[in-house]
Write a structure and sequence with these properties.
- It is a single chain.
- The protein contains nine helices and twelve strands.
- It is rod-shaped and about 115 Å long.
- Helix content is about 45%, strand content about 15%.
- The protein has two domains: about 130 residues, no CATH class; about 240 residues, PPM-type phosphatase domain (Phosphatase 2c, domain 1, 4-Layer Sandwich).
- With about 400 residues, it is an alpha+beta fold.
- The termini are far apart.
């Protein structure tokens, strides 16, 4: 009967990469050079000790060799150099004529020299290890921050992708939008939806916090708004339904402020409701002025599920512009921490007289930028301008603008 015997050949380790070989050779060469320097310093200290004899405190010379070895090699080399320095000191002491003392004094001196050199080596070796640990932790922190920044950027791109790709085309009206975040990802949000009664639904919202958490809250709000808009046209009732849904979904302490609006393009009339949000502004064309609408609505969405929201009503006449914004504009901070304020925003909006939607947007954004004076944005900022054209049969237009924090896709 024949049997087959299978013999496994020993595994051959893979050959190292040439770059690894070069790096290892470079490290070995560098270590040999540092070792040679330590030996040279010890020799120089010994010669200086011997030549100066008792005329100088020559024991300090050896600390250079000990310190070099402990810091640039390792603690073991530092201790070895401390022992060698003690031996060199003793040799120089014995070789210098007329410097001999009693045996007890000599032993005491040698012990003192060894204690000084050993203490110096131990201290520098410990400091070196701490420095290496600190450097390693700093490198790990840098890598972690880079990974976190990459993840936050991805969240920001996902969040920006959830914003409307285009603005709703409304005959006889024009749009202008500005959107920017204070971090890689933000909590400001705007959206549109066709309503059951034929009007156009608009939502501007501001989620609590900043960064990825606010972006997640914004995504939840988007899903809830799109769901509610399919069956509810009244802004007040829509906010009430959104509030109950968010109260079930959000963790404690999270909330959303919002302005919901239902716009009738045929008449320019609209209903609106607020959830602890800035009221809409209307830049009236005749006579030119800024009208701040009454704050109709209720509390922020999420914490108080039983809140009811009332609606207000207004109308755009030809040439009028509706302005919706978040508090990132009114609460923009200058380098000293002073807020821009609603009055300054309204003054900037009214300056220069009637203008198209893009010009009105530019006035507000430039005023906010001047107030910041180079200071980083402390909050997300969103601005929507809807202007009813003078000629009812004119075609509508859209001019979106995304700020630097949102990785903009400018089409204006």
């Amino acid at each position: 009967m024949l049997s087959a015997v299978e013999t496994a050949s020993p595994a051959v380790p893979p050959a190292p990469h040439p770059s690894e070989v070069l790096a290892a050779g470079s490290r070995a060469g560098s270590r040999r050079l540092r070792t040679a320097v330590a030996v040279a310093l010890l020799a120089a200290a010994f010669l200086a000790d011997y030549w100066t004899g008792n005329e100088a405190s020559s024991s300090l010379y050896y600390l250079a060799a000990v310190g070099w070895a402990a810091w640039f090699l390792d603690l073991g080399w530092g201790i070895s150099m401390a022992v060698a320095s003690g031996a060199a000191w003793l040799a120089a002491y014995l070789l210098v004529p007329g410097s001999h003392s009693s045996t007890a004094v000599l032993v005491w001196n040698v012990a003192g020299e060894l204690a000084v050199y050993g203490g110096a080596a131990t201290s520098l070796g410990w400091l070196r290890r701490q420095a290496e640990r600190t450097r390693a932790l700093a490198e790990q922190l840098l890598v972690a921050n880079e990974n976190l920044d990459r993840e936050v950027r991805a969240v920001g791109r996902l969040q920006t992708g959830m914003l409307p790709e285009s603005l709703p085309g409304i005959p006889g009206h024009e749009w202008a939008v500005h959107y920017e975040t204070s971090a890689r990802a933000g909590g400001d949000y705007y959206d549109f939806a066709p309503l059951p009664d034929g009007r156009t639904g608009v939502l501007v919202a501001d989620a609590s916090g900043h960064g990825p958490a606010a972006a997640v809250l914004m995504a939840v709000t988007r899903a809830v708004f799109q769901d509610v808009a399919r069956r509810e046209s009244d802004p007040g009732r829509a906010l009430s339904e959104m509030n109950r849904a968010l109260a079930r979904l959000l963790p404690s302490g999270w909330f959303v402020t919002a302005c919901a609006l239902a716009f009738d393009p045929a008449t320019g009339a609209f209903d609106y409701a607020l959830a602890a949000h800035l009221p809409p502004r209307i830049a009236r064309a005749a006579p030119w002025r800024v009208e701040v609408l009454p704050a109709r609505g209720g509390l922020m969405l999420g914490p108080f599920p039983s809140t009811a929201y009332e609606s207000g009503r207004a109308r755009l006449d030809p040439g009028d512009a509706l302005v919706l914004l978040t508090d990132g504009l009114t609460e923009a901070e200058d380098p000293d921490g002073r807020l821009l304020g609603e009055n300054a925003v309204d003054a900037a909006l009214s300056s220069g007289g009637p203008a198209d939607a893009g010009t009105l947007r530019r006035r507000l954004v430039e005023r906010m930028t001047r107030h910041r004076a180079g200071a980083p944005a402390s909050d997300d900022a969103t601005l929507l301008v809807l202007r009813r054209l003078e000629r009812e049969d004119a075609g509508g237009g859209a001019s979106p603008e995304r700020g630097p924090g949102a990785e903009p896709r400018n089409t204006s």
